[in-house]
Amino acid sequence: MLLSIKKACDPDFYNFVRPWLGGGTWVFEGEETDTDTLVGSSAAQSPLIQTLDAFLGTSDRTTKSKDLLSSMRTYMSRSHREFLEQLQNGGWDDKDAHIVIVTLFVVGPARRAEKARIKGTAGTGLMVFLKDVRDSTKV
What we know:
single chain, mainly alpha, two-stranded antiparallel ribbon, 7 helices
């Protein structure tokens, strides 16, 4: 899919756009007394790439690579940084919260309706299934 860019992008793109993406020291209008040094454009600045790494379990890298990827997060929005941190830390809050919500809105009402067996995904024992999924991802 990524190679499809060859159809729509002229190789001369580099000469026109790359100087603006290459980083360096910049002085922005209205801030003439301050300079900003930027690293330049990198796919590592995209939360998508680091999200895929977290999902695929490929985030075990050398210290140098980890440091670079970590520094690229400063170019992301705070919400993206927090999302990635939560993914890397196992996302326990969400899994525990999911069990609370299911208990309140599925298990409780089902018990009150005197259902014989509370069933979850594909007919599984609901709470056993949810807790097993949560516990299997604990670090």
